[in-house]
Each structure stands twice: as C-alpha cells, then as structure tokens.
Amino acid sequence: MPKQSYGAVPKRRSQSLLFALLDFANDSLDADESQVDRLRDQIEAQWQSSERLVIRTKLRYLQTLSRLATPDAPLTLPQIKTALKSFTGFLEILEDNRTITRGSENWHFTLTFWGDRWERDYNIDCFEQAWESCRSGGNGEISTQQKQQKAAKVELKTKHDWPSICRNALNTRLTSNPLTASDGMVFELGDLYVPLGVVANDGVDENSDSDADLPSYTPELFFQNHIDREQPNRLAIVGEPGTGKTTFLQQLALHLGNTKTCLPVWISLADLDGRSLEDYITSTWLRQALKQFAIASETINEFASLIEQGKVWFLLDALDEMGDPSSRAATTLAHSVESWLGNAHVVLTCRSTVWKSGKNPLAYFTTYRCQSFGSDNQQLENFIQQWFQQHSSLGDRLIFELNRRVNNRIHAVVRHPLYLTLLCRTWQLTQGKLPTTKAILYRQFVDAFYEWKQDAFPTTRTQRQTINKALGQLALQGLQNALQQFRFRQREVENIFDAFDPDLLTVTLQLGWLDVVGKSEETSEKIYGFYHQTFQEYFAATAIAQWQDLVAFQQSEETRYPAFEYGWQEIILLWLGREDIANTEKEAFLQTLWQWQDNCGGFYSLWATCMVGKGLAEFPDFSEAKTVINQLIQWRFETPKDGISLPPPIINQAGIALSRSDRQLTIPALENFLEQTNNPFDQWLAAHSLGKNHDPGNKRAITILEKLLAEDSHPDMKLNLCRSLGLIDPTNKILLQTLTQILQTESKTSTLRKAALRLGRLYPAHPLAITTLETLFKQATEKSQRSNILDTLSKIAPDNPLIPTQQASKTPAKTTRKSRQKTPREVELATATILKKLDQDLPLHKRIYHITKLANFNPSHPIIIPTLIEGLAIARCKTTLRLIIETLAKIVEGNHLREVLPQVREIYLNSATQAPSKRTCYKILWEWSKDLSYPDFQGIWQSGDRL
After folding, report:
1. pLDDT digits over 121-157, tens only?
2. Are residues 508 and 613 in the same domain?
3. Domain ranges, residue 251
4. Are 310 and 343 in contact (CB under 8 A)?
C-alpha cells in the first residue's frame, strides 16, 4: 500500500473539508440555503464548546457538503477518507467516537480546533502551521490532550451534605393545604394528586383542539425525559389559574430530591421582592436552607461550583407573581439564566396569559402546558372519590350533581384542580346547592370557612364582613401597585386594618387568610401574602366600588385601563359573577366593552369583544350575548366570502373566548352555525370544536362529521375527519370502516402511516395498523422515513420488536436553541462575514435570512430594521414573512418601537399591500399592543396620522 502523502494537494483537500465542516456548523456556509437546510437532516453538528465540534453523519453526506462548499473542486469519497485520516493520525485533532469502524459508512467524531469557532482566519493560520510542523516531524504546536484536560470538569469535594440540605428545604405540602388542614383533614403531597400531566406547548393555545396526538407527561415521565440531558434544561410549565402548575413542580421536586446527583432548589419568585435571583440565593435561600445567620464566602463558592457542574435544578415558581411587570421581571430573570446560572437546570411556572402577554425574553424555554381534567370525567371523579374516601356517599352525590346538565357552568369551572378542591371542601362543609359562577364558588367557600373555624377562632357576622372588606382593600391596593402586587410589608397591612379594626388583624392571621412569607432585608419587618394568588384576586373583585374602575382609573399622573391588562382578567370575571352587583351595572360594563372603539387599528376593540365573550360565563344574561357569541363564531370558524383568511390573532382570540364563555350559549349557537353553513371546511372545524370541547359527544357534531366523511374523497381530508370523529366518538362504526378502507386501498406512505396511527390509537394493538407499519418500515429506504414510521409504531405498539429500547423508553426533547453571549471579537468577525454576503445581489428570501443572522450577532446594526421593513412590504413567502416578524419582535423595543410601529402601520393600512403581508403586519402589531399600555399604543398609532 503506498504511503500516505502530506504534500500540498492532500493539505488543500484536508483544509477544504475541515473548514466546510466549520462553516456548516457555524451556519455560515456560502451556498444555496435550501440545499444546506436539507443537509442538516443528514449531518448532525453540535458544538461542545467554542473549540470542540461533534459530527455524526455518513461519508456520502460529507461528499454532498464538499460539493456545496467547493463546487469547483469537490472531494471524492476516497479523498474524504484520506482527509479524515490526516485529522486523526497526522494533526491529531479528530477523536473517533465510533464503536464499530471497519466497513462502516457511519462517522461519529469530535474535532478540536485551535481557536474559537468564529475566528476562522486564525484557525486557518493554525492549520497551516500545524500541518507544516507535523510534516517536519514536530507535534503541530497543539496538544489535544492539554485542551481536553483544560475543558474537563473537575469534581469538587464539598463540606456540606447538599442533597439533604436541598431536600429539607423543599415545600412539599399541597398548595391548597393552608385552608383545608385545620380540622384533622391533612393531605400530604401524594395523597390527593391526580396526575393530569403536561403536554408540549409549541405555541399552541391551551384551548386548542390540536393536542390530542401530543404525549402527556406525568411528573415522573417528565423527570425521566429530562434528567440525562447533556445541555442545561430550560423548561417552562404554563397554564391557567388553578391548573396545578405549582403542584406539578412540587412533584418534580420530589423526584429530583430522591436522586443523589440532582440538587433541587425551590424558589417562589414573589419572594424576590425586587432583588436579583443571585442576591436572593446568596443572602436569603442559603441562610434559610443552612439555618445560619451569616454564610461564609467558602460556602457560597462551594454552592457556586455545584451550579457550574450542572448539579443544581432551580425550580422557580410563579413568574407571574414577581413584583415587576412581567416583561421586566422576565428580562431580569433571563439575565441571571444567561449568565451565572448558565450551567444550572431551570424549570419555572407561569400563568399562560402572562407568558404570552408580550415580548418574552424567556420564550426560548421549552414550554409545557398543564392539562385539565379530561372530558370523560374519569379523572375528575377520581379526585372527588379520593377526597371523600372516608365519606363515599357525599362524593357520589357531588358527582351526580356535577353531571346534571343544569350544572354545566360550574362543571366547566372545576375542570381545574384548585376550583375542584374548593368545591369539594365547600360541599363537605355545607352539602348545599352547587354554585353557578366562579365568584359564587369563592363566596360559598369563604362563608363555609368561617363556620369551619368558628370553634377555634370565633367571629361574629359583623367581624367577618369587616375582615372581608379589609382584605378586599389590601388585595386591590396590591394589584394596583405596579411594583409589588402579591407581597405586602407589615406597615401596609397594619395601615389597612387600622382603618377598619386593628384587633382584627390578629384574627385574620389566625384564620389563615394571610401568611407571613418572609422578612424585609432592609427593615426586618414581616412580609405578608395571600395564601393563593386567586384568593387575592377574589377579594380584590369584592372591593371594586364601581364598574367604571374596571375600564379606567387614575394612578399618579397616568390613566390605567384594567380591561386591557392581562393581570386583571380574572378580577373582571369574578366581579361579573358577584351576586351583590346589580345586573344593570354588569350590563353597562359589558355594553361599554362591546361598543369599544379604540381608534388605533381595532386591536383593543378585538380584546374588548373577546373579554365580553369570556365574561358571559359569569354573566350570561347580557342583552347582546347571542350577538357576541355569533360574532366570535364567525371570526373563529367562518371562511370570509372573499376567501382571504383573517389574521391569526383574530381567529385565535375568538377561539379562546368561545372556549371560556358560557356553554349554554355556545352550544346552540354552534349547532345553528352547522345548520346554516355549507362550507365543508368550516363545518369540520366547528363540529370538531363543538363535539370535543364545548359539548363532548354532541350528536349533531357526530352527524356532521359522518356526513363529511361520506362526501369527501380526498384521503388527507378523510384522515382529518377521522381524527376529529375519533376524539368525539371513538367507537363510531363509520370511523372504523373508513380507516380500514384507507389502509386497504391507499398506497402513499405518509397517508398509510397516519391512518395506522389513527386506528392504533382508537384500537390499541390493532393487527392491521401494526402490520401496515411493519410493512412500510421494511419497504422504506430513507432514514427520515424509517424514523417517522418507527416513531408512529412506538406510539401504538411500544413493545414491538422493531422499536429500539431507547426509543420506546424515552421521547427526545426538543432542542432548546440558546446562544451564549458572544465576545466583541466574535461579533465583529460574524458581522463582517454577513455584511460581505449582503453586498451581493441576493433574492429577497436570502437577504432576509442573512439579515436575521446579523440580528443574532449585532441587533443594533443600522441596516437591519430598514431591510426588514422593506421586506415586510413586498414579501409573499410565508417563511420569509415569519423571519421578518420574529426578528422585529426580538430586536424592536423602547424608542425603536416608537419609530418602527408607525412604519408597519403604514404598510398594514396601505390598500396596495397584499394579503400575506397585511396579515403579518397585523400579527406583529397585535404583539406590540400587548407589550405597550393602551394609551402608549394609541399615542404611537395616532402619531402616524401626523407624519
């Protein structure tokens, strides 16, 4: 065999391959973007550090990469093999990670560069020097071993038993316990927990119909799915009030605490009281966990080293309860996560309304959504039976009452665990009539609570009324405070009660309405909080003096509009459900919102209409109720006569409002819509929503879906109809016949795979579904196709022999794309590279792509915003428009927003603007309307009239 040559030609080829891989991994390969995107499925490239690159691929894909990188001199397969050998034995910069090498086309290796990944010229110089040094018998002037030793993490011995310390510091009692545990009825965390689980959110609203095919994760499965990730986890658990976000996090904390390698640190974010997370951990959490007055610097350094090693899991509860407005709070938290918490795992909880309320610097977190009790009632009934395990007859009576159609409204409310807890407690104490609104549920609980506590802490009727008024004033004062809404200093609480009866503060604390949650670091005075945020909202709703205060009130020198703030939605709904408010007052308030004209594009008018729709759940007697519901149905389901789709925010917001409205109004309205419309697509969407969400198992919805199945011949549409019908009526005979027919007559792989999935979900282990997938797998030739088939098979037959063990036991997590902070040198180099490409005459989609990359490195560069605005006006491609608004949303804020918003407004209002651009403009303007207060948005919008 001839001796391998290391002359100029092999050197050029090796350099060509090495820097093609570098450019590909840096997303800076100067080649056709569509071809590069297709290649990403075949070449897995991941940076372990700024100098170490891991590649997993096959030789033929490296050859494709070579053709793209150097089309004038592409490498052959033998030349690629020779180059890889030179990286291994000659330059010693390649570590072969394969277990089987002989005869294998698969390659899995780690490359170690000489300098930072972005210092391309420096790496080229080093390559030249290393190559010539090795040719002359030197060692290439680089020691791979030294680099590995430097990068390796060294386990540090600690003086403290941190696993025990963290376990002891956990809060492990049920969130609802403070108001249920004083008469011997004590539930530990596991006693009353019904594992509702979470589903991957991926931008889907919690009221969407599209999560049926998504896997649900219990805390245990969630723990198993994320425990062994190489990269630090960034996870968010979101949901509506009372859906069990905190309880899920507590369950996760228990699983983490039972390991020897994970250190769970529980932090209620409301306790930060304006401080940074770092300051709170070092000055408060460590002192409380270690039970020490002062913490030595050695201990802080020891704990910091554990964070650096990736052993610490920060469980951050209730982002929505931080004192700052949500965007500022999230920005502060994001700064900590991106800096000193970089190697720690972070899991946080947040109300979905706050999580989506505007610009969110934590949006890159992988988001999961808490599920409610299922429409089949089984989980809800299990919860009730566990609660009344000592009094089963009471539980049976409650289940019977909830299932009566007349109690539809309260049945919809108690799908969330907190409200079902309150109902169970109230039912146990009173065994009375079921409430009809959420506000009445709270009021009944409050009344029953005083009776329950009467022996231990007796109160008169007058004292109870006084306490409730004081709590109402305190709660309202907090919610009107933009800086600290959910925590109260001792003097604030005392000032409120002094105005009523100072002696009643002691009784209030004994009853448990308020808890001491900490001490002020500045004054050492006690810090109080309501035991649950929803009770503060209820008491605040009882303190609203007039409905006009829900529309607008004066604070300092500015006017606030609660009706257009996410944080006030629950308070408004609770106010509407109050029995002591005259219907004329509620009517006047809803009429004001229904007729609202915002004079700034209609974004707040849309908000107002949807708020009225939600409010009908608490006040269904509104005179325009049917008109409101019909308007929402039209926005959500009806295809416009001109065929041009409405902007997504209108469709989505209408769907959310309908799902939270009064079922006794929405069900007949949807049935009427199904009778009147002749559009099959509209009928499908409306029937799906009616039969799955609004009235599970609705007969009219089933009939419509059966009719559409009989009339439509397109297999993809049939599969969509089968999915809907399967969710509503899983034993339907027509459904089974249709799926069987598709599997027996169709030949398209994707159609057969989807049909097998539908059939297998309805009838587990169905032989036709399994044999179809097995046959498809044997016939498939592409890796991605085989992977999709295996993934489908694992969902309906996880024990099938074709399923690899690791695939059946663990679902891959979505990659969280989060870049580390770039050095000034890296920003300079990346900016120069991108600007060089932008100097060329590029088509719009490529120009926008490079502008997006430039915004990642240098968001303040002056050419970015003008280029994006220009593209927004003329782009037609959805992908290009999506890149434009995502980039604008990320980089435009503050003063820039005052400059950019009027320009987007002009494009939106221009009659010459095409429909795709107009819808995209609406979408970004809608997001900005959530970022800004109503007066600010209106002022900027109207400034465009004066331009």
Report:
1. 888 888 988 888 887 766 554 444 333 333 333 333 4
2. no
3. 162-370
4. yes
